[in-house]
Fold each of these.
Amino acid sequence: MNSLFRSLRSHWPYRLARPLPRPFHTTAPLAVVKPFLLSDIGEGIKEVQIIQWFVEPGARVEQFSKLCEVQSDKAAVEITSRFDGVIKTLHYEAEDMAQVGKPLCDIDVLSEISPEDEAALGSTAEQAGSPSSPQQPQKAAEKHQSEQDQEPPAVDGPPRSRHSSLATPAVRGLLKTLDVDIRSVTGTGKDGRILKEDVQKFAAARSTVSSTSSTSPPSSSPAASTSTPTQTETPITLSPIQSQMFKTMTRSLSIPHFIYADEIDFTALSRLRTQLNNTLPTTKDDSKATPLPKLSYLPFIVKSLSLALSSFPLLNARVSTSSSKPSLIFRSSHNIGVAMDTPQGLIVPNIKHVQGLSILNIAAEIARLRALALASKLTAADLAGGTVTVTNIGSIGGTYLSPIIASENEVAILGLGRKRVVPAFADDGGVVRKEVMSFSWSADHRVVDGATLARCAEVVKGLVERPEGMVVRLR
């Protein structure tokens, strides 16, 4: 039987081919390191300053975990992670300037790099000398390691707050100028934050100790015992907000300003405001009564301006020079900016859609924006999209001013002076007490003529001096 099978096999016309050995294949290894790009945070911002890192190489992060805090020329923003993974490399150190669109750090994740990230990474790697060059991660890692090796030993003393290493860009610039280690300074600000005064006191105390230890023996000459004070100059780097102010004010010189000023009688509005503040209701939230914010004059002025813009939409427009022929872009929403003085500098968040808000809504929004501004927590949305600005320098002092149009997207600005009490003549010739405030307007004279601005200013004046007319026109 076996011989029969062998015979058939040898004569079978279709011999079975022995299967070829199958080689071992492996797929291309997945890329696990993703560059975390600094995304656009709006308003044409091209670079930000790294204030502090919340992570270090080797730290595990999840989506929405805080990576770092950055300071733009308008506000401080916390950057959160979009991936789950482990931090591999930090491309910048604290106080470095990071470019929008460039990698902030590398995160080790178990997924492939998206085409968008890969294209952005490839384009940035071609730029020689840029912060995101291939040599930069190695330099940052070496710098980070060297700082760890050179870290001074712990000094006995009272425990420091977890916020004690936080400081604004201006303070950090002063630290660098005076060559002061932030860890040596005891902060007196909120939660132990370092203030300018703390740095100056530390530097002064250090200078005193240094001069005492290096005092030379007394000289026998009377002239040598008296020292002549010398002028000292200390260069300080501009903070991001100051740098933006420098650029913005320089650009504003190309706008021809038309100035218009008038005095407004606040007597009637002052009485109405007092009555409203005495009768404001409370809102109940979870059975907890919360009083509404007290009304200042600013919400009434902002609302009056919005009502006037409905009749003079030109002052709510912007100039477009994107093409060879300039044009005007009219806008339907009244996003009125309110200039605010903060420890970091002047910023102008805006109240969105004022035409649809009540006086109380405007007051609440101003209070919200002011609280965020003082805490450096304003978002890009709070700062973007302004159409006209109100600046209240009178809250500090001054009667008249010449406001400057700082935004290229606006054609008008209103400046408010200090409210004051003056004697005035009544209709019957008698002397009466009046409360007045000066309104100073500026408009882009390339597109706004003086008559248009004056008519708009008269409408605002009438609404403020006779607030009952404002109530009639409220929607």
Amino acid sequence: MGKRKSARKPQAKVKKTLDSQFDCVACFHEKSISCKLDYDQKVGHLQCRMCGVSYTCTINYLSHAVDVYHDWIDACEAVNAAGKASRAAAQERNRDRDRDRDRDGERSRRSKPYDRYDDE
């Protein structure tokens, strides 16, 4: 005769939770961004404990802290893209202006490297 097999205990299910603290993209500190959600006023707020940067956005009943964080990242990328476009346009205007000056025979405002060291 054999021994009876004991019943297996059910395994505890691991609860997956979303983070509420994130890395700051302004100062690059780890776990320094804390998100707070106010569902009554439908406002999500995040703030960095190290550099003090803050961001506020509207939320709905499905929003979590990670949603506020990613909205902030998207807003930062939009600002950076707009800044790059305006810098590129300014550089293009400067190139056109310099090209026009060179055609007219005017000397460019930029000095040549090592101008001050030439013995003339």
Amino acid sequence: MPDVKRTIKIVTEQKVIDKPSGVEGFPLRKWNIQIFLLNEHGEDIPANVYSKATYHLHESFGKRAVQAVTSPPFKIQEEGWGEFDMTIVLTAMEKGGETTLSHDLNFQENRYETKHPVTFKNPKPALLERLRESGPVPGDENGKKRGEESAKKKKRPEKGVDMDQLAENLQRLHEDDLLQVVQMVHDHKSADSYTKNDVDAGEFHVDLYTLPDSLIRMLWDFSAEKVGKH
């Protein structure tokens, strides 16, 4: 699967509230943080490519120093008098990995935004489809979204091919077998197929849903046989 790059926007809001802070010269404030994904037009959309956001606050928050939020916009709200740096760990859906962001909580403005580039490495089909809701992914023709096209390809007329199982089989192959798979893909891919050979990283990426049915059948038969022998 191809790597997909997106941009996350963190929105912070804060205001002074009429409560004693206990620290002279530092008024008590109420603050909140929300997390959004930017689409291809730079507009805010729900960051539903993530299943969880975990906030690691200052240790002075005690039991609330680590807080997990499991639905967009992953809003957290607290009260305090001090500024501090925190980390936010975003967990992608479909076991798509974690991204750790650093965030500076400060009181210079009532509302401020920060943007962070993020990369989804080898996203699984369900995550890839969710990413398409925010814009094209590598391999999409002419920069257009292929949500409907990919949905059709998931319902392949080719009987006996489980695409998720195929992806798992390919990951379990030994190195020599993987080299044969790469050669098969090079020899039988179509003009619409997405492949990327990252020589420096020693990685080969392919979007299975862009491969011809005949090649999918070849990969299915080959990988099933090899995995069965392991």
